[in-house]
Amino acid sequence: MDLLTTIAGSKLETFFPSGWDWEKIDRCASQDPLSVSERQDWWNEDFQVVSCRDVNDFDVMLGHEIALTIRDSQQKGKPVVLILPVGPMGMYRWAVYFLKQWNVSCDHIHGFNMDEWSDQEGNTLEASNPGAFQNAMQEAFYGPLGSLTVPESQRFFATKSQLPEYPDRIQSLRDKGADVAVIFGIGRVCHIAFWEPHFAEEFTQDDWKNQTYRLGAQLHPLTVEQNAITSFKSRTSLVSACANTIGPGIFLGADRIIGGADGVLGRGMQWQGLSFWMTLRYGPDNWVPSSYMPTLPGKLFYLEELSGPLVAECN
Questions:
Q1: Which DSSP state fits 297?
Q2: 148: three-class secondary structure by DSSP
Q3: The domain at 49-307 falls in which architecture?
Q4: CB atoms within 10 A of CB 87
């Protein structure tokens, strides 16, 4: 007795993304934890998963990878485009630490936040709002860098006015020799940024990959609840049902990816193990946006606990 045998006729029958293959998902989730790094046919030859023992290691290792990317581009004398998430967040403290230790100026960075809460028309929170991603980036990254920080004119946020300019701005920087690094987390429904799985039903395969952004995107209920738990101290009423977001036309164009999966709650509880395994084993599919990330060069850092085994344990 499980979801697959009881979903018919239940309130969950139309709740999950309609393109999800639950038998396939269950196979993904039942993998041996020791097999997590076994390479799949569709993985990029330069993609790798990196195990982290606990969240402290995770924050340091992910932050170090970001700092290395920034330093390497500076040493090459090249601008770098960073597509930046708010979640995970702990790595920014360590990225700042390493950059300060190395005395690396960040004046060659062009930072593009990948998403932001919005209303149905794409209007966003005030930048000073504690729930705003622009505020989070100022507090976690741009501010602590001090005199080494990214120039304000090179910081871009997913607002109604700026997000539509992302494709042209990024292409212009590419034309000047910039590499694009996409830093990302994985959503409960396997979104990247707030590009949700149910958007797949609107496009052909190729058209889906060409979408660069969406204003006022309608979020899946599991996305709202994920963020209520992780960012709003369980208070669902504070979470918007909509967001502005980049699309696969941007995040699949990365020259390098730096991913992080840290969705462990403690005391044996977690929310991200299933999403993590779907990312690695489902295979590229528009209904599972994160499933494309292993096709790109880079690293996905993860907490060991997420690899499982994903079995029942009453807490």
A1: S
A2: helix
A3: 3-Layer(aba) Sandwich (3.40)
A4: 19
Q: Which helix (H) or strand (E) element contains residue 302?
A: strand 298-303
Asked if residue 274 lies in contact with residue 311, where contact means CB atoms within 8 angstroms, the answer is no
228 to 117, 223, 247, 254: CA distances (angstroms): 13, 9, 23, 29
* Residue 299 contacts residue 259 (beta carbons within 8 Å): yes
Tokens representing residue 30 in the block: 């039942």
CB 223, CB 268: distance < 8 Å = no
With a CB cutoff of 8 Å and minimum separation 6, the contacts of 35 are none
Q: What are the phi and psi torsion angles at 279 (to 5°)?
A: -60, -40
Beta bridge partners of 217: 243
Summarised one tens digit per residue, pLDDT across range 210-245 is 999 999 999 999 999 999 999 999 999 999 999 999
**Residue 155 CB-half CA count within 13 A:** 14
Domain residue extents for the chain: 49-307
- Convert the pLDDT of each residue in 53-96 to its tens digit: 999 999 999 999 999 999 999 999 999 999 999 999 999 999 99
Supply φ then ψ for residue 128, to 5 degrees.
-85, -5
CA distance 84 to 62: 13
| Residue whose tokens read 């969705």 | 263
Exposure on the CB side of residue 13, measured as CA atoms within 13 A? 7
